[in-house]
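Summary of Year 1 activities. Much of the first year was spent building the evaluation harness for sequence design. The harness presents a backbone, in tokenized form, and records the residue chosen at every position. We chose the following record to illustrate the format because it has been used consistently in internal testing since the harness was completed.
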């Protein structure tokens, strides 16, 4: 555990304790930790300057090698060192706020910061990114969308304009490709994201949204979730909604909202709802 780095979202924290580090090593390299689509390491090295330490940050090469080239990150971040964490923590040193560091740029594969103070035996290194993006946008988009992959493969485009989405939902859509879309955004922007995911064949996003919508179904939202499920052909979500209504005998509770929904859709959707209701009833009755 001495070299373990805890990470969540854009934040990472290494609890460094000299008593547990190998004193025969001149460099102490952390275990790999994942932020966005990359695996990272932090390295602590002895400086020639007495009492100073060199703190280095770099993405692991295998995590950004791709077919036909590399996919290293461009990052904005800051590193801080504190004596402890919590209410009474004190920052001992901090790096500059690094902006748009291109890890793929010649000679910049590693970020190095000389911490020119003598550190205590135990301390915390905290890394916080404010921005991360791929230097190879084609890879990021093509890795999860067969449509984008084909567009870039054919060489017909070098940029993609998504003009049929509002700015914020579009940004959330792009965030998904970099593994930084928050769980609540899958819920809050579900309709916009499903439209885009269907259009650009982002199948993993469709599955993730469906799981999120199915997670907290209740009598207050079940009809709204049904509308989404039948519009975007989310079979698991459809089944969960119908089961809640029938297995838990909530038809009379939501019947008016359900009637309004059925009156607003075409006959094919009504037939699908009827078939799903019959299937669940048959399963309940053991038919």
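For this record, the design step produced the sequence shown next.
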């Amino acid at each position: 555990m001495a070299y373990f780095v805890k990470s969540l979202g854009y934040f990472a924290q290494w609890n460094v304790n000299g008593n547990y580090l190998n004193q025969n090593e001149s460099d102490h390299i952390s275990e790999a930790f994942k932020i966005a689509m990359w695996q990272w390491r932090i390295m602590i090295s002895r400086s020639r300057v007495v009492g100073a330490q060199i703190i280095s940050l770099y993405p692991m090469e295998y995590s950004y090698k791709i077919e036909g080239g590399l996919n290293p990150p461009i990052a904005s971040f800051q590193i801080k060192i504190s004596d402890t964490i919590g209410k009474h923590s004190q920052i001992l040193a901090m790096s500059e706020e690094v902006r748009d560091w291109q890890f793929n740029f010649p000679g910049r594969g590693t970020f190095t910061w000389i911490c020119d103070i003598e550190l205590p035996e135990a301390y915390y290194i905290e890394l916080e990114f404010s921005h991360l993006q791929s230097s190879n946008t084609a890879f990021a988009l093509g890795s999860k969308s067969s449509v984008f992959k084909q567009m870039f493969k054919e060489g017909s485009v070098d940029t993609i304009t998504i003009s049929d989405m509002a700015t914020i939902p579009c940004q959330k859509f792009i965030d998904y490709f970099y593994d930084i879309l928050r769980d609540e955004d899958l819920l809050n922007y579900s309709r916009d994201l499903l439209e885009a995911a269907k259009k650009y064949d982002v199948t993993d996003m469709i599955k993730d949204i469906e799981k999120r919508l199915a997670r907290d179904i209740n009598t207050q939202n079940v009809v709204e979730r049904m509308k989404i499920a039948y519009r975007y052909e989310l079979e698991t979500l459809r089944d969960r909604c119908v089961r809640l209504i029938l297995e838990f005998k909530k038809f009379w509770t939501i019947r008016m909202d359900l009637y309004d929904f059925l009156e607003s859709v075409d006959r094919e959707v009504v037939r699908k709802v009827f078939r799903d209701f019959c299937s669940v009833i048959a399963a309940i009755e053991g038919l």
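The first strand starts at residue 5 and ends at 8. Quantitative recovery figures across the full test set are reported in Table 2.
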